[in-house]
Design brief:
The complex is a heterodimer of chains A (353) and B (203). With 353 residues, chain A is α+β, with helices and mostly antiparallel strands. In chain A, 43% of the residues lie in helices and 18% in strands. Chain B has nine helices and one strand. Chain B has helices at 2-6, 16-43, 49-65, 75-92, 100-108, 118-129, 132-143, 148-155, 159-184; one strand spanning 7-9. In chain B, helix 6 (118-129) crosses helix 9 (159-184). The chains are: A alpha+beta (353), B mainly alpha (203).
Chain lengths: 353, 203
């Protein structure tokens, strides 16, 4: 088979060709997609980064803005006070206990290593990050039924793969192509685990992998860092966050979040401040339509106080969600006539509510 | 507030307005010229229309946010393919979370993919058994119609190197197809499993 014959064979495997896509009636959808993308905020450097290739732009605010907006989109608006069975620190919320009891409760037992992040924390799946300040390891858990699919996917991008033992279980270690990005997958009970991180070499990665140690429920749940809102403290944290926020009529604190995961303060802050802001922005837009100038002024005034909301000032140190929210205040003050910023009308997408 | 010393949000105020208007025009042109090409790219790689829509929307979102990094002229399309590939890889690694926007886009894609012939399935299976880099080179070459010179630009390698890689990728695909035929005709030597390498990937 010559090259031309081989290419013709390959063409048959494409399933859909560009000419078929050209004939689709997608015009309205294209316009809407384009507008929505262009309504998302962009941050641009005031001055060029300090040196070409410094990587500053990549590591700076832009990815954090993306992360902030992604978090906002993922965090469901609303927190429900999680049930818990006691009054002291060891009385964990039922959902957190369920997660702990169902999982291997692994911690990295090495000096300086601690949990720095916990996210999507449910019995079925979750992820947490361990770090010593220099290197980090992401640990995911997922339903065991998904294990083979993930292994196949990782092997498809593997530069090398090896059989290893993690926490007494056989697993497969993979190094991704063209990188020192390592990941290992193993199955344990009802879960498939994956531990991934970028390390200087395989030995450094395997040293951390070998230090993954099972712990008891209390030890594991207590290992959540200060920034992680443990379920038992969640209701109090929400109450503290809204203390300096004017709340729109009908705002339901109990409807913020679904209460089934553990979020860190940043995520929780985005959920809470976003829910409050969305209430006010909704009132502002509605009142402009109805001509209720008093309600419009009230909403604007409430949003202007957001520049002093304690949780936003705290979050500003670690991400750009507050800036995105404040851009909406800027736009409201400018009568929503600054089309190159943010269209207030797209607030739900931008703020994740 | 270190970030604000270094960066400012695009506010559309003052002198920035002219640049911002230009920026919007440039993005609109980029989007209009490439949206359907990218949609084709994604639909040829993932079976789920909504996921394909997600990949396209995310790719253009990256382009919108990093418009200054997008090259001008024909190379913009190559940049978009490269970005789409990374978005796709993240999707495979389960790191992408879909936005409401793309759910809507996926739901509106009034498209029925033709049923694949047995021959097409065989070729796709053979592609899947190849090293991911080899398979993607062949897809970009044949499915997206990129020339070796364009591929060389996209991957940042000399054209001669790219021609060698393409030649090698075709040879490996032939091997996979031949192996399948050997099995079909009763020969031994192929176990039907994807190759798992235990060696360094050549650069």
């Amino acid at each position: 088979m010559n090259d031309r014959q081989l290419d013709r064979l390959l063409e048959t495997a494409a399933l859909i060709r560009d000419d078929a896509i050209t004939t689709l009636d997608l015009r309205d959808l294209e316009v809407e997609t384009k507008e929505l993308i262009m309504s998302t905020p962009v941050l641009t450097p005031v001055s060029p980064p300090s040196a070409p290739g410094s990587g500053r732009h990549e590591r700076g605010i832009v990815p954090r803005l993306v992360a902030a907006v992604a978090v906002a989109a993922v965090v469901v608006a609303g927190i429900v006070v999680m049930p818990f069975g006691g009054s002291d620190d060891t009385a964990w919320a039922a959902e957190a206990l369920a997660v702990a009891e169902a999982s291997s409760r692994l911690l990295v037992e090495l000096p300086g290593w601690e949990v720095t992040r916990a996210h999507t924390f449910t019995v079925a799946e979750g992820e947490m990050t361990f770090s010593d300040g220099n290197q980090s390891l992401d640990l995911h858990w997922r339903p065991a039924a998904e294990h083979d699919g993930y292994v196949a996917d990782r092997l498809a991008s593997a530069a090398e793969s090896h059989e290893v033992t993690v926490n007494g279980r056989r697993g497969v270690l993979v190094r991704y192509l063209d990188s020192f990005d390592f990941t290992t997958l193993w199955r344990d009970g009802r879960h498939s685990y994956e531990a991934r991180g970028v390390f200087p070499d395989r030995a450094a990665y395997e040293a951390v992998l070998a230090a993954l140690t099972p712990t008891d429920v209390d030890t594991w749940l207590r290992a959540m860092p200060e920034s992680v809102v443990r379920p038992i403290a969640r209701a109090a944290a929400v109450a503290e966050m809204i203390a300096d926020m004017p709340l729109p009529d009908g705002f339901d604190v109990g409807a913020v979040g679904d209460g089934r995961d553990v979020s860190d303060r940043y995520q929780l802050g985005a959920a809470v401040s976003g829910a409050v802001a969305c209430g006010w922005i909704g009132q502002w837009l509605d009142s402009r339509t109805s001509g209720d100038t008093a309600a419009e002024a009230e909403a604007l005034e409430a949003m202007q106080t957001s520049r002093n909301w304690a949780i936003l000032l705290e979050m500003e140190q670690s991400g750009a969600y507050p800036q995105v929210l404040w851009l909406h205040v800027d736009a409201m003050e400018a009568d929503d006539r600054v089309p190159d910023v943010i269209s207030v009308r797209n607030y739900r997408q931008a703020l994740g509510c | 507030m270190i970030e604000l010393d270094e960066f400012r949000a695009v506010t559309g105020k003052g002198a920035a307005s002219v640049n911002d208007a230009e920026r919007r025009r440039r993005f609109e042109r980029l989007f209009d010229e490439n949206f359907r090409k990218l949609l084709g790219y994604a639909l040829r790689r993932v079976a789920d229309k909504t996921i394909a829509a997600d990949i396209v929307a995310e790719t253009f979102l990256v382009a919108w946010r990093r418009l200054d990094d997008v090259p001008h002229g024909d190379e913009a399309r190559l940049w978009l393919y490269g970005t789409a590939r990374r978005v796709l890889a993240n999707h495979h690694r389960g790191e992408r979370r879909r936005s409401g926007l793309v759910d809507k886009l996926g739901a509106h894609l009034d498209l029925t993919l033709p049923e694949a012939s047995e021959e097409a399935l065989d070729v796709r299976a053979a592609l899947d058994r190849l090293d991911d880099a080899d398979a993607e080179l062949l897809r970009l070459s044949v499915w997206e119609g990129l020339t070796p010179a364009e591929l060389a630009t996209m991957y940042g390698v000399p054209p001669a190197t790219m021609r060698t890689r393409l030649h090698r990728a075709r040879a490996r695909l032939r091997e996979q197809l031949d192996a399948k035929r050997s099995v079909a005709s009763g020969h031994e030597g192929y176990d039907g499993r994807p190759p798992v390498r235990d060696t360094e990937e050549e650069s």
